[in-house]
Amino acid sequence: MSAQPDRALVPPAPLAPGAAAQLLAQLRVNPRAETWVPAFEQDWARALEDSRHSYSLSPLHGVIRSWQARIEAAPAVDAFLAGGRDDSDGLDLADPLDGRR
User: Residue 71 domain-assigned?
Assistant: First the structure.
């Protein structure tokens, strides 16, 4: 019996130095820019402060990756909502996440 994992974990691909600026430019031309740009800036400021205390870039990378995922998922969400599907059984994401903070 070995204590080694079955497979090695692959680290995420490194981000480009200007990834945050490119992402912010994408958000500014997005139809949701009015709400998404301030939300991104708030997340970025919080992650920047966390990085200053932890001496780690992980919080910043996490913000970039989560916002990239939002941008990529937006067309699918729009299609779902435009399709007239019932989303009344949804769950406010803040509810389960409140206990994690």
Answer: yes
